[in-house]
Amino acid sequence: MEQLFWLPIHADLGKAIGEARQETDPAKCLNALANLAGYRRDFTLTNRLDRTAGKLIADLVAKDACKTAGLTPLRVAILSSHTVDHLLPALRVAGLHRRLAISVHVASYGMYRQALLMEDPEMAAFAPQLVVLALDARDAPLQLPLESAEEDVAAAVQDKVAELRKLWFAAKKRYAAQVVQQTLVPLDSPVFGSFEALVPAAPYAVIERLNTAIREAARQDGVLLLDLAWQAAQGCYGKGVGDPVRWHQAKQLVSPHLAPLYGDQLARVAAAAAGLSRKCLVLDLDNTLWGGVIGDDGVEGIYLGPGTPSGEAFLAFQQYVTLLAKRGIILAVCSKNDMAVADAAFKHPDMLLKRADIAAFVANWEDKASNLRRIALMLDIGLDSLVFVDDNPAERDIVRRELPEVEVPELPEDVSDYPACLAAAGYFETISFTSDDAARSRSYASNAERKASLSQTADIEGYLRGLDMTLTATLVGPAELPRTTQLINKTNQFNLTTKRYSEAEVARLAEDPSALVLAVRLRDKFGDNGLISVVLARPDASVEPDELLIDSWLMSCRVLGRQVEQAVLEVVVARAAEAGWSALVGEYRPTARNSMVAEHYARLGFVNRSAPKGAESNSVFWRYNLGAAPNGTHFIKVENP
Amino acid sequence: MNEQEVLSALEPIFRDMFDDDGIDLTADTTAEDIDGWDSLAHVSLIVAAEQRFGVKFLTAELDSLHDVGHFAQLISKKLNG
């Protein structure tokens, strides 16, 4: 697994860092670098970021001006038994992304005891707030004969841990510092194979026993862990921890190429200690909490629960989210949906998350950036407390652009991997867990209801321009028939009349030269969205002979809010005018699910028209004069072959 | 890739590592010639080169890896071997 895989990939991070470095205002420069630190980066780019950021942070700290740049200063002393200098840039950069201005002091190689137990003027002058004891398995080994008895091993382990506790105590007493103890990664190869753990003094058995004892002591003494042994066992470091070549060459426990991961994991603990961890998980609904689109597929049509592989996977993700709520993470929902439709999904029998688990529930058709602002206000927390999870890369992109304070993990393609992704990203690192935490999300849920709402317009225009959209409208032919028919029969929400047609009926209409049957595709910078909209227009005896009736107009919800409607109207208008029609007539036929398009024709500049004879009684009719100026703008390149 | 080509590909890595666009690599360039080429930078250079070329240096090869020409020669040999 690539390190930092939950971070998005920047199109050209090297260039962006170069540009950010040109900024002469230090606070602005640091802010730009802090945002860039949130992209996936190898150790070379991380070091490049740090070359400027490190200096600026040092200046700010020297001038006692971190607050003006919105950063929290934190002094970290690293006392280690191996080489750590190559890890410092990654620690500073990951800290900066979490709004920490980290200064680092590294005690002389291998002198960690002296730095704590004796007078150390440098340490005293530095006055560390966090002391990291980065020890390794080769340091002061227990040196027990392989045939040692169980009691002897246990006693030796206790001695070792007692020594560590003295060091922890000294760090607290001498410097009033919070201690972070790194667990020991086994570096030597097992000598017994699977029998290893059955021999008390075998290398792996000793390390395991030591780590267990370290964790227990840390729990009792209020010491935090950087549980590198546990991370390494999970495989996130591959050979990057304990690579024997790097050890023999430079006594590096962590290989330079995995410095960004190590720096991030230590920075999380530091950020948690400084109270800067994330508090709230904001969830999209369709294809994030269940498979399918609730508005189109209905409660019975979504994938959730036992019976299908994806239903199981979405359920497992909900289970993970539920556990996060139980440890005190606030849950919120931010979905493009009708409130009533989204609400109904929570009546699904396999829905594990309950409506009452959600402290802020926002479902509407506005852009997600505005809605995330609203959620932060409702919960009375900062945007920098939010983590936003959405399967749709376009939505993730806009939120990152509009609200760089919000963490937006680059979700894996497969929902089965969502829990591991959230866990690996470490947004919710903590320094304590109490029964108060467990009750927290419920109390937020009740507070939120009292909060007023706020709408703030994000820079939607810039976003839409940046999407690089191209729309292609073609007359439906045999190639488009199956997908066109499927869309006609599946779409519920953005569907003006919700008329259903068989493939044969669509084919017949498409062959009629007086009719206009359009299939619309949309590509953007993220890829091809495929066939996403259909318009069926035809002459009809109930309207005037020079009027073209729009029998059906529908669109997939995947491309909502991108002004596709405006571009489609442009195509329809051009083609209808060319064919000699003088006006379009639109019909809105309300259903339980299509309220979002009630004002569709009004928004496009149609005017009310009397209902033709024989029309549905609750339908509303609209007319568009083909000579009229177009209403509204869009940022879509239109191909109309 | 021959030695000269490897040398050219190493240049941006060096420039980046030492943040100095004025670095021109020749086969004779050594740590003496580049400001900041200390033991820490040395390991980082090796790891960056391993990533860039998709090769792995043997521990024994690290013993005598002191000038850029030797660097390029070894990488070229690994790529073509």
From TrEMBL, chain A:
<dbReference type="GO" id="GO:0016788">
    <property type="term" value="F:hydrolase activity, acting on ester bonds"/>
</dbReference>
<protein>
    <submittedName>
        <fullName>HAD-IIIC family phosphatase</fullName>
    </submittedName>
</protein>
<dbReference type="InterPro" id="IPR036514">
    <property type="entry name" value="SGNH_hydro_sf"/>
</dbReference>
<dbReference type="InterPro" id="IPR049369">
    <property type="entry name" value="BF1531-like_N"/>
</dbReference>
<dbReference type="InterPro" id="IPR010033">
    <property type="entry name" value="HAD_SF_ppase_IIIC"/>
</dbReference>
<dbReference type="Pfam" id="PF21211">
    <property type="entry name" value="FkbH_N"/>
</dbReference>
<dbReference type="InterPro" id="IPR023214">
    <property type="entry name" value="HAD_sf"/>
</dbReference>
<dbReference type="InterPro" id="IPR036412">
    <property type="entry name" value="HAD-like_sf"/>
</dbReference>
<dbReference type="InterPro" id="IPR010037">
    <property type="entry name" value="FkbH_domain"/>
</dbReference>
<feature type="domain" description="BF1531-like N-terminal">
    <location>
        <begin position="75"/>
        <end position="230"/>
    </location>
</feature>
From TrEMBL, chain B:
<dbReference type="InterPro" id="IPR009081">
    <property type="entry name" value="PP-bd_ACP"/>
</dbReference>
<protein>
    <submittedName>
        <fullName>Acyl carrier protein</fullName>
    </submittedName>
</protein>
<dbReference type="InterPro" id="IPR036736">
    <property type="entry name" value="ACP-like_sf"/>
</dbReference>
<feature type="domain" description="Carrier">
    <location>
        <begin position="1"/>
        <end position="79"/>
    </location>
</feature>
